[in-house]
Design goal:
Length: about 280
């Protein structure tokens, strides 16, 4: 059976001036697919078998290509948004006909030049389309363990939970809401630290280093802010966590660790009003 969106080995059944007609070996050849002449490997003759990808051209006809396509049915890939139209976004996947990402398959409204993680599906009109709804395709069998550094792309954001990340574009991971101290958005490629491997294999990530490493940069950042503010800031260890996050983009615990270090080093004093540089 010849299927859209997949690579298949097909036999050369007929040769014409504009290309080759391919079909499954051992069949009557009723279902034939055109491989355009510019795609035909040199020296190909009738009876040869070619590995080709099947899609539809701009006239909605099934067509074969020997090109290397970045994504097939069941796989994931990061593609660039080439154009946005009234029916959705068109993605560049290296073929003459761009790949449609319908609005209903977008987890966030995309714009030109965005990079998005997608997979393929066949719609009700039997055309290949892209979807950003990839959660169920991500693997939970990653090789990573706690404290490993990983790279991934953010593919979905749910304010109540955090952001969802595809590590290496294939493994399921999440940055919880309480680990988000810097602005991120769908399509961002991030480096993060594994803080937990759940029982189901999914990874929990943090954008921050281990506390004893992160403390150095947090302390330096607070001292920079103190200097810019003239040596005093109205924040201390009783300040509300939301205010600390808003001002410093760190958690209250991280803030307390940093000012504790600065206090022990004799760099600041801590009062009921705030912190002051020495």
């Amino acid at each position: 059976m010849i299927e859209l969106g997949k690579y298949q080995n097909l036999e050369v059944l007929k040769k014409t001036d504009f290309g080759l007609y391919l079909g499954e070996s051992g069949t009557d050849g009723k279902h034939k697919i055109l491989l355009p002449q510019k795609e035909v490997p040199e020296g190909t003759v009738i009876g040869n078998t070619l590995n080709v990808f099947i899609y539809k051209d701009s006239e909605d006809r099934e067509i074969a290509t020997t090109a290397k396509v970045p994504v097939t049915i069941g796989e994931l890939a990061v593609l660039r948004v080439k154009e946005v139209s009234p029916i959705g976004a068109f993605l560049d996947w290296g073929l003459a006909k761009d790949l449609l990402l319908p609005y209903k398959e977008q987890t966030i409204k995309v714009e030109e030049e965005n990079r998005v993680l997608i997979t393929l599906y066949v719609d009700k009109s039997h055309r290949l389309c892209a979807t950003m709804k990839v959660y169920d395709l991500l693997s939970t069998n990653s090789p990573y363990k706690k404290d490993d550094t990983v790279t991934g792309i953010i593919y979905e954001q749910i304010d109540a939970f955090g952001v969802f990340v595809a590590v290496d574009n294939q493994y399921s991971a999440m940055i919880p809401k309480n680990e988000l101290f810097t602005p991120v958005k769908i399509g961002d490629t991030i480096q993060a630290r594994v803080i937990n491997v759940r029982e189901d294999g999914k990874l929990t990530l943090s954008l921050r280093e281990k506390s004893y490493v992160q403390m150095d940069s947090d302390s330096a950042m607070i001292m920079d802010k103190l200097k810019a503010a003239g040596g005093f800031l109205p924040f201390h260890d009783q300040t509300e966590p939301e205010l600390i996050k808003s001002e410093f983009n760190i958690s209250k615990n991280a803030f307390k660790r940093a000012i504790g270090r600065l206090y022990k080093a004799g760099a600041i004093t801590i009062t009921d009003e705030g912190i002051r540089s020495v």
